[in-house]
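Archive record:
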Amino acid sequence: MTLTTLGRRSGTTDGAGPDAHTEAHTEASAADRSGRSTRGRSTREADALAVASFVLGLVGLLVMNVLLGPAAIVMAVIALARSTARRGRALLGLALGVADLVVLALLVTGDGAVGWSFGG
């Protein structure tokens, strides 16, 4: 609780007049609102990164694992660094991204080529 709030509750002022208290309260409220909106937006962005890393890792197991695997890993690490609420999904995206690179390594060592197909 701030001195401004204490002064309002007790009905006393510090000699600066009632406008000073109103301005201080308005500035504090604006900072509070901007802090909440920034935090909410960064949480939503981190959640979106977690979901995107999961989807890219999953799709990367089937196609373009050389591109989608590292992208899933980077997105998952960023989401975890931003403290996402979807931590499990980000960890799954990280694991799938690593699995993409493992599948790529197995296919390259088996065939000697980066491309592969289902047809045989």
In short: Residues 18-60 form the longest helix (43 residues). Residues 46 and 84 are 5 Å apart (CA to CA). The chain has four helices and no strands.
